[in-house]
Write a structure and sequence with these properties.
The chain has 17 helices and 15 strands. By secondary structure, the protein is α/β, with parallel strands linked by helices. Helix 2 packs antiparallel against helix 4, helix 2 packs across helix 17 and helix 3 packs across helix 4. Bound molecules: 1,4-dihydronicotinamide adenine dinucleotide and ligand LTNE7NMQ. This is Homoserine dehydrogenase.
């Protein structure tokens, strides 16, 4: 096919994807999001998409399971083949291994589970994926170690699908390495889950630009957990109690301070800015943290007992906004039209009828101004956190790659 539009590439050149053979999938992370991926993969086995993805490796930070029989062409085909009893058994075995990894507590012996190896190493993963089929690593971790390998895998011909924002939302050099690797190797990077937990924000940005549009500005609520927290917070009940609820519901990062400090939103606005053609670096985003210094230095194990440190400052902020008839919202803003584009992230007190103050639950609400949407922005709104939507976004990207369809990234 002719040259693809900028930011939108096609995998039809990958004969492995076009062959109809299952793509080999390695899942890293079996926490809130990873478990939902496993559940959705299992549900896919009962759908017409059952032969698209073949789970060959599952790992968390403690243990890993590989189904090496999935590496041979015959065994790979039989893993998830539709209507094949033997493949059904293999598929179940693989899903069970996934479930076993997901339920493996840190200290429990793995001796009773022969499919599991006690230590999960990324080198072991690379051995599993070293083959001729379409291979996809799904990153459902929050791990720097894993994010620093994205570019390497892309270079090696392995596609990457990620919920973790530390790859494209980290240092500019890492984002550039990912971009260069996928361009050089013709591999794909599925990043739909990284912003808006799969809302079509990155896709919209890329498709607008593919049509010649230029992005002028982006503003909005990019954190599902902070949207939920400031939607619930009434200034009467302690903010810390809502943080515990948001964490239990799976909306926050593994360490909720990554949300409260604005770091998670910093990563998201960096991903959006870079996708909009503005290659900002980490320090080009001014971030207001909600985490007091005393809380920032508390060890993770003691965090729960210290969350009350949030309560007084946020009650004060809430009371001031309430007196003015305003609402607190955690907003990210990017303006690409200034001489040196910069972004900001922080808590704002908005008029109650401000378009960015609207939304319920974990809703993200993102406004995009461009040549085409110069006066009235394009607005995308919907749930922006949660294991279910995130897992769906990850597997949508994986399926698009496996099917040789167009994916953004
Ligand atoms: N919870 C949500 O709504 C959303 C989460 N995300 C992202 O999804 C990712 C995962 O989040 P959660 O599931 O909540 O985290 P979690 O803490 O529940 O799970 C993380 C998993 O990664 C594993 N892990 C850590 N290092 C590893 C390594 N080197 N190799 C293999 N596995 C490793 C851990 O053992 C654990 O199983 C994060 O990057 C988060 O930002 C993205 C969009 C929405
Ligand atoms: N912790 C994140 C989860 C999705 O990225 C959020 O609150 O938005």
């Amino acid at each position: 096919m002719s040259a693809a539009a900028p930011g939108i590439r096609h995998v039809s050149a990958d004969p492995r994807a076009a062959s109809g053979e299952s793509a080999r999938v390695a899942l890293l992370g079996t926490g809130t999001v990873g478990r939902a991926v496993l559940a959705r993969l299992e549900a896919l086995q009962r759908s017409p998409l059952s032969n698209r993805l073949s789970l060959v490796h599952v790992a968390n930070s403690r243990v890993a399971a590989s189904d090496r029989t999935g590496l041979g062409p015959t065994a790979t085909a039989s893993l998830l083949g539709v209507g094949d009893a033997a493949s059904g058994a293999s598929s179940t075995a693989c899903a069970s291994a996934g479930a076993a990894v997901a339920s493996q507590p840190a200290a429990r012996s793995t001796a009773a589970a022969p499919a599991l190896v006690r230590r999960s190493t990324l080198d072991q993963l690379e051995a599993v994926l070293d083959g001729a089929a379409t291979c996809i690593v799904i990153d459902a971790t929050a791990s720097e170690d894993v994010a620093t390998r994205h570019a390497r895998w892309l270079h090696q011909g392995v596609h990457v699908v990620t919920a973790c924002k530390l790859g494209q939302g980290g240092p500019l050099a890492r984002w550039q390495a990912i971009r260069d690797a996928r361009v050089a190797a013709g591999t794909l990077y599925g990043d739909s889950a990284t912003v808006g937990a799969g809302l079509p924000v990155l896709r919209a940005l890329r498709e607008l630009q593919a049509g010649g549009d230029r992005i002028h500005a982006i503003a909005g609520v990019l954190s599902g957990s902070l949207a939920w927290l400031f939607g619930q917070f009434d200034g009467l009940r302690p903010f810390s109690g809502f943080v515990r609820e948001a964490r239990a519901a799976g909306y926050t990062e593994p360490d909720p301070r990554d949300d409260l400090s604005g770091e998670d939103v910093r990563r998201k606005i960096l991903i959006l800015a870079r996708a909009a053609g503005v290659p900002l670096d980490v320090d080009d985003v001014a971030v207001e943290s909600l985490v007091p210094d005393e809380l920032a230095h508390v060890p993770v194990a003691d965090l729960d007992a210290s969350l009350a440190l949030l309560d007084t400052p946020l009650r004060t902020r809430f009371a001031r906004a309430y007196r003015n008839g305003e609402k607190l919202r955690f907003i990210a803003r990017l303006d690409t039209r200034t001489g040196r584009p910069r972004a900001t992230v922080g808590l704002e007190s908005l008029p109650a009828d401000d378009p960015l103050a609207i939304g319920a639950g974990t809703d993200n609400r993102i406004a995009i101004w461009s040549d085409r949407y110069a006066e009235q922005p394009l607005v995308i709104q919907g749930p922006g956190a949660g294991a279910g939507v995130t897992a769906a976004a990850l597997l949508d990207d994986a399926l698009r790659i496996a099917q040789g369809n167009r994916v953004a990234g």
